[in-house]
User: Fold these one by one.
Assistant:
Number 1:
Amino acid sequence: MQLAWEAFLRRYRPMAHALAQGLTGEPDESEDIVQQATYALFRAHREDAERFESAQHARNWFLRTVRNLALQSRRDRSRLRRLEDEPPTSPDEERARAEVEARQLALTTVLRELDPHDRELVARRFLRKETLAQVSESTGVPISTLHSRERAILGRLRTRLERHEQEGTA
């Protein structure tokens, strides 16, 4: 089945946006989610147009994808709540939070020292949660090369973090 993309998006994009915003509570984030779902639908349709029997089937697939992405985003956001939002309940917990904050600061410092290409690979793998196959497909770099590069980057990060922690305690 061929989709009339402009008509499809004109009709269902507002519905998808409202769904995403209702689940996330964030207008900017919901726009990103709708864009991700649109791209996913475009790719799925390009790879196998016959899987969509009708425009309603494509609509359901699209809105289900928006829902899943919005729920995932909400889960991720709840996991990343800032430590300051919850007051410490004991001196041990306060010390543990201080250690976590120090490690986060050290990691930020070490990540900024990375080469921009290495930093991009780390961002795609760990922030955007892309697989090596996805990165390979979009960059044209073989998966084995990306895997070796990722292992080397992570090794350098570990070494730099250990050095940073030793300098902090010395």
Number 2:
Amino acid sequence: MLHLLVPENKARLELYENGFYSIDDGELTEAEKSLGTQFPEQLRAFYVEVGWGRLQTGANSRYTMSKNWIFPCEDVPQLLNGTCEWMMPYTQIQPDTLPFFERDVDLFLCLHPKSENPNAVHWMWGDKICDSLVEFFQRLVEDPDWFNPPKP
């Protein structure tokens, strides 16, 4: 299962400090019904075990000014069908792409559920960040900016 624990020699990152909210089974079922399919395995596990919210402070006390917003499950189908209230009108989401994380205004991280690796995390334009959603969140807990290249 997916556990967001930092290494043993460091303290556990308290999820509430970053603003996480639980999802009940009915919300998850309704979102998947709207999608017409289940969420990829690791995203579904995250929703069940953690929920949705924001992760801006890492275990090493690093902070990001980016949103780092894990979408509520019910927002995902609304993003895909263009009915999400907060989505910018010019936003385009590629086919077979499942946005789950907003880095900044309309800058999404996505999964490709029909691909060989449906749990790999990608930028919305396709560049892969890592092979696993579990790895993505474990590294995000340590450093909320880990996947951004350093500034020159």
Number 3:
Amino acid sequence: MKASERILVGLKTLEHVEELMDLACRLGSPTAWLRLVHVIELPDPTPLDADVPELEALAKEILEKAGRIASQSRLNRSTAVLRAHGAASALIDEIERNKIDLAVLGYHHRRSIGEILLGTTAQHLARGAPCRVLLSIPPSDR
């Protein structure tokens, strides 16, 4: 796989920031641009502009940690906190808007009822993203 120029890194939790950033930095060309994204996913009846200070604080912490790692690699970067009822559609829109050629995402084995019924963000991106998608899947806890 050739080095990527425009990489979206989907960051959901603090525990996966280092691993995903390491992957993105290693797969990017020396002139790559990283788009570091966290999606605040809100339930359908909740307005997207709802006040959610705890989630906003977490998003800020995640993106700051990712930004520190990116600065060590000297890659250009920008960050975004997106608000959506579904993370997959928000990420696909971001991929299209920024002409991303690689999306790097984490995956967890814990599944919610919604994921069982509707599918995971990773599944939706694997089917619908207009770019390569790299999933970092940890070993199961079995």
